[in-house]
Amino acid sequence: MAGKQDASIAVVVVGQDGKVSGWSEGGRLLLGWTAEDVIGRPVADLLADPPPPGFPEGYGTGPDPTGFVPLRHRDGSTVDAVVAAQPLSGPDGRATGHVMTVQRWGRRPVIADRAFEQCPFALGVYDPELRFSWINASSGRVIAHTEEQVLGRKYREVLPEFDRTLFPERDDKPYTDKLAEVARTGEPARLITVFRARGSDYANAWATSIWPVRDGEGRVRAVANWGFDMSAEYWARQRLLILNEASGGIGRTLDVIGTAQELARTPVPGFADLVTVDLFDEVLRGEEPPPASAFTSGDTITLSRAAQHSAREDTDRPPGTTAPVSHAPGSVAARCMATGRSTVQLAAEPGQGGEWAFGPGLAADPAHWPPGNPLIDESIAAEGLTGRITVPLRARGALLGVVAFSRRDRPEAFTADDLILAEELTAKAAVAIDNARRFSRERTTALTLQRSLLPQGLPNQEAVEAASRYLPGGTGTEVGGDWFDVIPLSGARVALVVGDVVGHGLHASASMGRLRTAVRTLADVDLPPDELLTHLDDLVLHLADDLQPAGRLQPVGEAGATCLYTVYDPVSRHLTLASAGHPLPLIVSPDGTTTPVAAHPGPPLGIGGLPFEATELELPEGSLLALCTDGLLGSRERDVDEGFAELRRVLSHSAGSLESLCDAVMDAMLPDRRTDDAALLLARTHALARHHVADWDVEPDTAQVPNARKFAVDQVDAWGLAEAAFITELVVSELVTNAIRYGEPPIRLRLIRDTSLICEVSDASNTAPHLRRARAFDEGGRGLLLVAQLTQGWGTRHTTDGKTIWCAQALPRPGPR
Q: Which of 314, 427, 626, 692 is the most exposed place for a label (fewest CB within 10 A)?
């Protein structure tokens, strides 16, 4: 048995008579027989079974150079062996017998040769010049050549298609270059190669290893490779990569057209060459799409092409544009929308070109197609297409439009798995588009509400020249709560206000409206800026209480706001301001220098319990005030301090009109993709001429009332307002009399000629008068009623030194000024 384990190759010489005439030592080691035992005996005696046909003549000389033969060992056992016979010739060329080589079946290299030859993987060996040295049967089937056809020929000569890259956009190195690189460097390589086999219209993916073959001295004598078709796994992975890209690339913005463009771009060029997305106009406007029952497959359906992306860039639609497109009755797109089922169109019958023979496994099996697919439609070839997948775009039971995935620059046909991928991409995009549609609807509603709550035009007043701008956040962002206002006050003064509510959406717009209304109401009371913000802070606290949910799981809205409230007096040219967490105004003097505001913003509204501080400044006539929200100053690219510096730079060129300056500020300050809304209010101050103001100190004696009346009448006549003299005389008489009787000295009378004729009487008392209905026999109580009836308005303004009662009457005619 030891001999059987040590046996190597046996050589047997067989004569023309079939008898053994020569026996090697290897024969004894392999079978246990000595030369004396077998010479002269028929070679068939060594066989364990009857001799196979043609044995030994020609045995092992056909297509298979070896033959499997069971032999008898001397000890009676059977030895599985491989036999090869070669003819012997004499000097005259006549056959004299055969030389047979015998080798145990289980020994190398025979079993290895059989294993390599029958390996299902493609195997090949090449010399350092990349000439074919050996290939197995699987490799021959892949390259469509036999071993005899390629031996000694160069790889590039046999397979020129492997000398180029199938997908240039991936920057792949040609496979032939990788073989040459391994032969040159001696470093093995592993790679995935994508190519189209000969006779195939489908690109196959092969997992390949290349390694050098070295001799005993370590020199590279050959290069070997192996590969197996992993197309099914490779294309499945590519589909997963596209889906993964879609997860992060579709639905990044809350914009309908932007999302449609993301859907069109994602599958190109890895999956399709051309993608179009058609949507109903209602979807683009943020409205509800038409119900599916509104049309049938027999109707012409008109949509808008929201997105189109192609591997050929010259065929793309300009970003953000749409174009009407109609789908005729009975068309594939119309049927898909009517039935809700996808359709695959192929320009040729599956199997033409060999794509099924070399396609990605079960993905190309027609048994995996859903009913009705694929549809062989030769007409799409006229459009230059090899295939098209049409998928209805549906979300939450609503039909939004239709998507078409087309192939034209690649010959491979769509597969059943490709249909699944197209439907997955469309389903993901449909939800994102529907979300964008719903957001667009809410944003439009909030924006409409907010614009209705903002001033539709700035009021007529003489204290300042004002201009304003408001821009909501960019598309895909919710409407914020920024607001501004210009409020005329008593005494020819004006209040300039800007504010910002925390949060976005309908809640922010509604809260903004409530705060703006509250500011106007408090301004009518003529509260100082710091007191006004204190009352506004209380209001925001109450709003926060109103937002507390009744149930544990109900959402809580955001509360809080910032506000800047300023009052400008054109008579004194004083500006009084207070801030609740809002950026302070920027003041540009007439000479272009920036005046810093020495004030500190107070806490934002809604904190509660903290004071607000008022600051008073004297401004030169013609000063420019810039009030804005933080959406104008800050962005992702710059902080608020940098925003202030940029605003100063733009306002330094303020020679033009305020309207053009507003436009310049918005253009310079706001990025293209802004994420917050922004409000800007510019005001250039005026000073009321001294001759438009007249005042007089009144002694606290009722005997001074006639003098006060005369002072008022004379001044009105001097202003050319004689028609207002009678009412002015009555008003002054009543207000001065009340101040003397019920107020405290000092008492002062002031007349102001502005857009109206204003009469003010101030005293040191904090007691505010009020209207009351006098009874029939009362001696007093009718004065303020007369004032209210004879003038456009009247009111009380509290000051640090007491109060001021004022009233205003319309100017009778535009007299000289």
A: 314
